[in-house]
Amino acid sequence: MLKYHVLSLAFLCTSLLVAQTTISGKVVDEKNIPISGANVYLEGTYDGASSDANGDFSFETTMKGSQTLVISNIAYETHYEVGDVSYFKNLSIHLRETINQLNGVTLTAGSFEAGDNSKVSVLKPLDIVTTAGAAGDFVAALQTLPGTSTVGGDGRLFVRGGAAGETQVFIDGLRVFQPFNATVNNIPTRGRFSPFLFKGITFSTGGYSAEYGQALSSVLLLNTTDVPEQEKTDISVMSVGGGLGHTEIWGTKSLSINTSYINLAPYQALVPSNQDVRWRKPYESLSGEAVFRSKGAHNMFKFYTGFNHSTLDIDQKDINYEDLVRFRLKNNNLYINSTYKHYLENDWTLATGASVSIDKNKIGLLTDAIDTEEIGAHIKLKLKKNFSSRFQLTFGAAYFKLDYEDVLMAENDRTYKSVYDDDLTAAFAEGDIFFSNRFAMKVGLRGEYSTAVEDFSLAPRVSLAYKGGDKGQFSLAYGDFYQNPAIEYAKYGDGLNTEKTSHYILNYQYMGNGRTFRAEAYYKEYDHLVKFDTDTPGFDTLFNNLGSGYAAGLDVFWRDNKNIKNLDYWISYSYLDTQRDYLNFEEQATPNFAPKHNLSIVTKYWINDLRSQVGLSYTHASGRPYDDPNTTGSFLAEKTKTYNNLSLNWAYLVSPQKILYCSVSNALGFKNVNGYQYADAPNSNGQFDRRTIRPTADTFFFVGIFWTISADKKSNQLDNL
């Protein structure tokens, strides 16, 4: 009997030994470097081991048949081997690096991002408010970034040799057709929107996404805040007006309202303008914005609206008239924007929205009256699919509708009417491909068809980025960009086609230790630009698309907000070489909005003992080209004097919720020149008389107090500084 039990036990042990299978192999990365500490196990069991310093692993199992072998490591994508356990011997396992969204490579060529749009912000929305000389205008603050040109009498964005109309503005992905306030010559305009309602800003100076079009030079993307942090009321009392804002929150819903009133009468009474201008009625405006948000578990709905009513009545000098020329303006603008985003199953995201812009002007010029009306609409549908951490696909379609009409009622009771209508349909697709944490690519294609030009355009876009170290990376970008001719020409010129540019960009960016450094070289090639044969466009003008040109340059940006105690500063420099043969140019020349050199220095210093922040902004631009008819040289061969502006600001923390803010633009009173005007006809000596066009006021003062009343008593204006 004992012998029988011994034999049975021996047989059982032998059976168990025979039933065990050894699983073995080696774990390496994509460069065949051994990976230590990788977890290797059979799914659904406790059988497994970890790889050693050489990447080797080995363990035994009693499992049989088809099984799943799991190999994982925190820095790599999980790998699976499926098959019969008898084949899991001497395996060679290659793990791919996990794409790290926080520390991995990003595509940065041609783009400045701010706020929640970027994991590392170059410029925060609040920088717009606290930049000396900006006076709360986001466009003025963006003009301190490289790639922009200073054009003193305008106020819009001129980017890398492009005209102001070559930059488009979008709110939550939907186009704003009239983003700037209406104004008169030689009085800079301002953006219509308050920076406090936006969580992030992306300013693409070139090479922008295939999702956007109809911009030869750049796009400015403004994204409204998703969820406000707290209920609060903001009150501002300024030397030129006042403002009131309020945010209310109901669970997952919220509403923010912001209103402002501006009247320059008190300012103009204290600060005399130059002798070329006389105000009959100073600039006055009433504006407001509202954002409603509703956030669900898997969706977000936003409704944004903004309105503006502004008037002015001014007499300006014109060299062709003995008396001052009267100009009257009344502008009404309404913008409505609604967006909806839904997060679907299987990593699909649906985003859709629509916007409507309505802009009306009543203009009086001498004895003539001009009424204009522009209505623009934009509808967009976008789908995004995350197939993996290495590949994301975005595609969609958009429709743009633009109706424009102006009516000129001349002194002789004759009426002239111009109209322009366009229906533009677009489709786009774009893929983000991450080969590793160091190398990524974005490839896109956009197609558009416009009924106004009866033309179809196909625009490829591609960007590459390589991260050479933990803090620095290189980027390349190429893209074709199309834009319909401006309304001021298209309303006269039948048969005009789409204008085109091609962008080539090389970028290096370093971010770390509170420092940001960017250097970007670019080349832009213009083709099919509009040309015409008269001094100003009209019904008797002949138009064509034979214009061309180029723009090349280097942009450099440096910011340090950590390494000098209490000091935050940035320095921007742009070099621009550009020439065009377009419009009524006699030959290829540099346009008058394109200075060769631009330099900006912005500083902000916190003085703890004085509870104050003091700021300084200095802007320098080389002379801009102009044409002197009294010379026999080349077209646009002369240059204005250099532009200089030193602006100062001071913010004093009266209490945790109150700030006293003062700013002075052009504090040193530089006698800048916006340009020159020449007489239409020569004088008795055969020379064309000219006058110098200077800013309406050399120096601008701004004083205000800002008061935030928070429902939960946690708001602290010190954080804003």
From TrEMBL:
The keyword Signal applies. Residues 1-19 form the signal peptide. Gene3D superfamilies: Carboxypeptidase-like, regulatory domain (2.60.40.1120), TonB-dependent receptor, plug domain (2.170.130.10). InterPro entries: CarboxyPept-like_regulatory, Plug_dom, Plug_dom_sf. The keyword Signal applies. Residues 119-214 form the TonB-dependent receptor plug domain. Keywords: Receptor, Signal. It comes from the Bacteria. This is Outer membrane cobalamin receptor.
